[in-house]
Write a structure and sequence with these properties.
Structural class: alpha/beta
Number of helices: 11
Shape: globular
Number of domains: 2
Largest sheet: 5 strands, parallel
Distance between the termini: 40 Å
Radius of gyration: 26 Å
Length: 381
């Protein structure tokens, strides 16, 4: 259509030129009435078409990500032959998501990187690479549950296949625009992250801020940009009445908040985020991970994460909507917030190590507490 407009403009210019051009050094002003057409501002260029390439470790949730993108209106293509991928992407006219992994015909890490570079140079498209990753222990557990063979170790140990694939795909992880650690990521949280990052409506624009509570004993969240250690706060674990509860319970929360250092700490962290988050947005950052850690990941970190999310959203009920920046008069900020309590997965049913079901009994704030939802499964990888 753009070429047709250019050709039409050139023909009109030639007709005017043939009919008589103005004397040199003078200009002619043609009014809307004289031209018989309306004068309007130049038409804005259409937004670049979104292209999302999804890759990652087998069993880490790549197919789950593709399913979410398909639900968002993307044309989803899984494992096309690599030599045909660029043609499929460039000839489309709607947002497209393409799954790529080691099973793709003609797969080679260098070839994928070259295709990615060419697609990123195309101004008509906004191309991003998403890499799904999970810790070795999580992947081994998923393969054990599904009894599937690893594509890079069809007759060998799954552990060897994971190691080989991790080494092969390491350059793609380095080149990714978004690395998703699904080791303990519930499916609702994965869906929310993808929707907020790649949703096509204005409601999904901007940066996603993910706040995660965790236990130091189980390792740092891999996607954390900022980590805050709250083990200096007094510990409800040593109170036999409070120990069975979580930081979402009112009596546990009151115990933690009564620590003289609690409010000053929360104020300082809020001040820091008031400075950092707008700068992250200015730099074009699309995701910011904030991790709050304590010893067991059930009491102090949960309550602090909950309170911090409420602080930076401006109102607890707005946790998953457009939020107000701290210290402003309530004008919308260009980021959105998700809240995830990593170690509560499996504990809300009273059974450690199993997947819990969030009933909403503890939800007094309007946040979607994703830590109690089903995690990504290997068969969806």
């Amino acid at each position: 259509m753009l070429l047709e407009l250019l050709h039409d403009g050139a023909r009109r210019y030639r007709r005017r030129h043939d009919e008589g051009s103005p004397p040199e050094g003078r200009s002619v002003c043609v009014t809307a009435h004289q031209a018989g057409t309306s004068v309007s501002a130049a038409q804005p260029q259409p937004a670049p078409r979104r292209v999302v390439l999804v890759t990652g470790l087998s069993g880490a949730g790549r197919s789950s990500i593709l399913h979410v993108l398909e639900d968002l209106g993307y044309e989803a293509i899984d494992n096309p032959p690599l030599p045909l991928m660029e043609e499929l992407v460039t000839r489309g006219d709607r947002p497209i998501a393409v799954g790529i992994d080691t099973r793709s015909r003609g797969f080679a890490t260098a070839a994928v990187l070259q295709s990615l570079a060419r697609l990123r140079q195309n101004p008509a498209m906004r191309t991003e690479l998403v890499f799904a990753w999970a810790a070795e222990g999580a992947l081994l557990r998923r393969y054990t549950e599904t009894r599937r063979r690893h594509p890079m170790a069809p007759s060998g140990r799954v552990k060897d296949g994971i190691a080989a694939e991790s080494a092969l795909l390491a350059p793609l992880r380095e080149a990714a625009d978004l690395v998703l650690d699904t080791s303990a990521l519930p499916i609702p949280t994965l869906r929310a992250t993808i929707e907020q990052r790649f949703g096509q409506s204005g409601d999904h624009a901007g940066m996603t801020v993910s706040i995660t509570s965790f236990a130091y004993a189980k390792g740092l969240p891999a996607d954390a940009d900022l980590v805050f250690d709250v083990r200096f706060l007094r510990n409800p674990h040593y109170d036999p009445i409070l120990r069975p509860g979580t930081g979402l319970d009112a009596n546990v929360a009151a115990f933690i908040a009564a620590d003289p250092a609690f409010e000053p700490f929360l104020d300082k962290v809020t001040d820091l985020l008031t400075l950092l988050l707008p700068r992250f947005v200015q730099e074009g950052k699309k995701y910011a991970g904030i991790a709050i850690g304590c010893t067991g990941g059930r009491h102090r970190s949960v309550h602090v994460a909950h309170r911090l999310a409420a602080r930076i959203t401006g109102a607890p009920s707005a946790a998953l909507g457009t939020i107000a920046a701290p210290g402003t008069s309530g004008e919308p900020a260009n980021w959105r917030v998700t809240l995830n309590h990593r170690e509560l997965s499996g504990e809300l049913t009273g059974t450690r190590g199993t997947t819990g079901v969030w009933s909403g009994a503890h939800a007094t704030d309007g946040f979607e507490h994703a830590g109690a939802s089903a995690p990504v499964q290997a068969q969806e990888a």
